[in-house]
Amino acid sequence: MDDKNRGMLYLSELLMQHHELEHFNGLVALVKQQRQPEIRFFRMDVRPPFQDTPDDWEDRLEAAFY
């Protein structure tokens, strides 16, 4: 990871690394697990591909991270 991306968690990377996820709630749980002191920012650079992704998905993932 280069200095520019240090301290940043990308939603697209989580989704690529965790193909086993089938539902939005599983993603919320994963985001909660990823919280670490050295990761200060969460970039939601893609929309989650799940059928049950709610309209307020950004708010929910942000709440799970922070």
What does this structure look like?
It is built from three helices and two strands. The protein is mainly alpha-helical and 66 residues long. The model has no long low-confidence stretch (mean pLDDT 92). 8% of the residues are buried. α2 (24-33) packs parallel to α3 (57-65). It has one domain (3-65). Strands 1-2 form a two-stranded parallel sheet.
Key terms for this structure?
66 residues, mainly alpha, 3 helices, 39% helix, 9% strand
Secondary structure blueprint with pairings:
Elements: E1 8-10, H1 11-17, H2 24-33, E2 41-43, H3 57-65
Parallel strand pairs: 1-2
> Biggest β-sheet, characterized?
2 strands, parallel
State the order of secondary-structure elements, H for helix, E for strand. Answer: EHHEH
Strand content: 5-15%
Return Rg in Å.
12 Å
Supply the number of structural domains: 1
Mean residue pLDDT:
92
Low-confidence stretches: none
- Form type: globular
What structural class results from the helix and strand content?
mainly alpha
Short description:
Helices cover 39% and strands 9% of the residues. With 66 residues, it is mainly alpha-helical.
